[in-house]
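Worked Example 4.2. Consider the chain below.
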Amino acid sequence: MCNLYTLRRSMSEVAAHFDATPVAASNAREEVYPGYPGMVVRAAEGQRLVQSMVWGFPLRLKTMSPTAKP
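Applying the procedure from the previous section yields the following structure tokens:
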């Protein structure tokens, strides 16, 4: 599975599809790579919200220093 995705819809279209509320304007691009902004639908206080967040999962390798950022 690749963690690159392509999104060809606007934030308002994504919000309408998921019955969510856009939090602010998105700076996500059409092709989203790990470490760059992507649109995320999340739940908060019983509401669905759409907002930009950094896409990807932190990776901590066994060889990394405990104080190093993933």
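Residues 5-54 form one domain. Residues 11-17 form the longest helix (7 residues). Compare this with Example 4.1 before moving on.
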